[in-house]
Write a structure and sequence with these properties.
The complex is a heterodimer. Chain A has 8 helices and 10 strands. Helix content of chain A is about 40%, strand content about 20%. Chain A has a domain of about 90 residues: Nucleotidyltransferase, domain 5. Chain B has one domain. Chain B is built from 19 helices and 8 strands. In chain B, the strands form 2 sheets. Chain B has a 4-stranded parallel β-sheet with strand order 2-1-3-4, with helices on both faces. A 4-stranded parallel β-sheet of chain B has the order 6-5-7-8, sandwiched between helices. The N and C termini of chain B lie far apart (about 45 Å). Classes of the chains: A alpha/beta, B alpha/beta. Bound molecules: iron/sulfur cluster (2 copies). One iron/sulfur cluster (SF4) binds next to loops of chain B.
Chain lengths: ~260, ~425
């Protein structure tokens, strides 16, 4: 039997395949593009071509595009899946998971391997990957370039939480001739502040704090978060697949 | 919808814009309500009322006005219906629950006003709701700041009387509220031209108590292990209760309760076994605001109780019927109403007690605390509510939303995740 988790996020689509022994045997990430239906279809093709016999597959779809995966046996929200995936990846039953996704940011509290509580940002995109992306675009950088540049900056602040207003703030900072690294610093600070204030709405347990999702590769953001939360925030390369892995783990529970 | 154009025209409504509203409502109702399976048969009454919501009841009200009776429009469950009915008046609720009315409200109110107030003001000023046209007098109250100031704007367009609500619940506040009830009675008498006698007031107290008991009977069946009625259907009954004739409301609710009690005996549930039982707490849901219930009940949950003004706050506690003088009766009325716990009071710990009690009585798996965007009172109190629930080991999800559909998918993810979390 193969257990497949498909995580259709707003920016990236990921999948993970576990074998009978729950070992990760395949993972993949690609841009979601404008159609989650087409993305799901392309994932199905890739899986079929990889030689996995479809009769021996149990699958779960997650992420904001989870309803666009007609071939999945079940849908489960990304909150449950990120929680499960992080527990598996970090081999820890009590932890806090911070997932900074493209569209939303979640802080998930895990106790005994189960989601105990969570907070998720409201409609607006402050403190999400989208916010970082918009600001990076404005500054003609990639999100990871922006993050690394931020390390050398300081002394600048973006006060607006709203992406649209913050973008005009960045533009006027550029206009004023502010150094790029200082603006980058302000952008990362703003994201970390928002995430930290979200976390404060929930009582975090004393376990591990881990960063999952697309932004887990920005090491500087992780450092700033450590600082703001006064906790050690850990991450590892596969953390961006936490949702997909969690979904695959959920698939192991499916009986037909 | 049947043809009521002539009536609407005479009410001075904006027919063209009103047509837009009439065009969307049946589809919305069909999608949210008629798609449900195994609904109680007695819901046919409410289905009929909704199908002609701007026709049947408004026409009835106009008939009564022709006989000389007066219609009072209210916006809050603290305004005592008993007093109006004792003076041969009619009460109709006037709260707006649709985004449709919000832009007209935003034309005169700050955007950062709660959607309920914006929709209510918009329904009047935009001339797109017959109830808002029919009412001879509006009765407001000084509950929240948004409402208080909105009355000043509405008062320029329609006769408006405002009751001064106490902010605390001390003995002297109850006395003060009793005086307010007496002052209101004098205004009602003047408007209707009828005198309130102890006999008439006793009768109206009885009528409203019977209505409360009937609604409570329906809620009582929702405590059973099987869930005989969806939260959406119960909510609809409550929403219409604000508009309907109180005796008919009681009769229909009792008929529904008969059917539901039988369903409980027969073990009939409208949800599969294992569906998570949810208590909704917070701000009122005026018709046709079915948004949150619909999302919950299509995400693996069932709403089994509402601690809102369109829920238990509307019918819990009865007015003592033993008073024989007007003074005793007004005091009994004041005491009953001051026993409702809205977030506009401070301190308001009794509301938290109510929520914990309801969570137990209705055997809920989790609580969803909802507050309408920009409602500072319920938003702030939400902190205390959530804390108390967590301490009691009851999972809780706080939600802030408005009447638009913009956040529907986000809400669905959160609510689904919450229900997954309940196991
Ligand atoms: S929430 Fe408070 S102010 Fe609003 S209707 Fe209820 S009791 Fe009145
Ligand atoms: S929901 Fe809150 S802000 Fe809106 S009318 Fe009621 S008390 Fe006032």
């Amino acid at each position: 039997m193969y257990y497949i988790g498909i995580d259709i996020g707003s920016t990236c689509a990921k999948y993970a395949v576990l074998n009978e022994k729950k070992e990760l045997i395949r993972k993949h990430v690609q841009p979601t593009g404008w159609s989650s239906v087409e993305t799901a279809e392309s994932i199905r093709t890739q899986l079929a071509e990889s030689g996995i016999p479809w009769e021996e597959v149990r699958s779960v779809a997650t992420g904001y595009g989870r309803v666009s995966v007609p071939f999945a046996d079940k849908t489960v929200t990304e909150i449950t899946c990120h929680g499960r995936g992080a527990v598996w990846l970090h081999n820890s039953e009590n932890m806090t998971v911070i997932d900074i996704g493209g569209q939303d940011t979640k802080v998930i509290c895990i106790e005994d391997g189960m989601v105990k509580d969570f907070v998720m940002n409201d409609k607006c995109s402050a403190g999400t990957g989208r916010f970082l992306e918009v600001m990076a675009n404005t500054m003609a950088l990639t999100p990871s370039e922006l993050c690394e540049l931020a390390r050398d900056g300081g002394n600048t602040k973006i006060s607006s939480m709203c992406t649209v207003f913050a973008e005009s703030e960045v533009i006027s900072l550029i206009g004023r001739g502010e150094k790029k690294e200082n603006i980058a610093y302000a952008v990362v600070e703003s994201i970390a502040d928002k995430v930290a204030s979200q976390s404060s709405r929930m009582s975090m347990n004393s376990g591990l704090v881990c960063l999952t999702g697309g932004l887990c590769e920005c090491d500087y953001l992780r450092e700033v978060l450590c600082d703001k939360l006064k906790r050690d925030v850990v991450t590892q390369p596969d953390d961006r697949y936490a949702g997909a892995i969690g979904a695959a783990l959920m698939a192991t529970g499916i009986r037909r | 919808m049947a043809n009521y154009r002539e009536m609407w025209e005479q009410l001075g409504m904006d027919l063209e814009n009103h047509d837009n509203l009439c065009a969307v409502l049946p589809t919305a109702f069909g999608d949210v309500y008629l798609s449900q399976e195994n609904r109680p048969e007695s819901m046919d009454f409410w289905d009929m009322v909704v199908a002609d919501i701007h026709g049947i009841r408004p026409a009835e009200l106009i008939e009564e006005q022709k006989k000389g009776r007066k219609v009072f429009g209210t916006f809050c469950v603290y305004v005592p219906d008993e007093v109006v009915i004792a003076a041969d008046g009619i009460v109709t609720g006037l709260c707006g629950g649709s985004q449709f009315w919000v832009p007209d409200g935003e034309a005169v109110l700050p955007k950062s006003t709660c959607p309920l107030i914006k929709a209510s003001v918009g329904a009047r000023l935009g001339k797109t709701c017959p109830f808002f046209r029919i009412a001879d007098m509006y009765v407001g109250e000084t509950t929240c700041d948004g409402k208080k100031k909105a009355w000043e704007i509405l008062g320029k367009d329609v006769p408006m009387y405002v009751m001064d609500m106490p902010q605390m619940k001390r003995a002297k506040d109850v006395t003060k509220w009793m005086e307010e009830v007496e002052d209101f009675a004098a205004v009602v008498e003047k408007t209707t031209g009828k005198t309130i006698t102890p006999e008439k007031l006793a009768e109206s107290i009885h009528i409203i108590n019977e209505k409360r008991k009937a609604l409570a009977r329906v809620y009582e069946t929702r405590k059973a292990d099987v869930i005989p009625i969806s939260g959406k259907d119960a909510l609809l009954m409550m929403q219409i209760a604000f508009f309907d004739d109180p005796e008919r409301c009681a009769q229909m609710a009792n008929r529904l309760a008969d059917e539901l009690e039988q369903r409980v005996k027969d073990g009939v549930s409208v949800f599969p076994a294992g569906t998570k039982r949810i208590l909704v707490t917070g701000t009122p849901m005026a018709i046709p605001n079915w948004k949150l219930h619909h999302i919950i009940e299509t995400s693996g949950g069932a709403v089994v109780c509402e601690e809102t003004c369109t829920g238990t706050r509307y019918f819990e506690n009865l007015v003592d019927e033993t008073g024989t003088t007007l003074e005793e009766q007004y005091r009994a009325i004041a005491e009953r109403y001051m026993g409702i716990h809205c977030a506009c009071f401070t301190p308001n710990t009794e509301r938290v007690d109510d929520i914990l009690r309801l969570a137990k009585e209705y055997k809920v798996d989790g609580v969803i605390d909802v507050n309408l965007k920009f409602c500072c009172l319920y938003d702030t109190e939400g902190y205390v509510v959530e804390k108390a629930l967590k301490e009691a080991g009851i999972p809780v999800l706080g939600i802030e939303t408005d009447y638009t559909d913009a956040d529907a998918e986000q809400l669905r993810t959160r609510i689904e995740a919450f229900i997954e979390m309940l196991g």
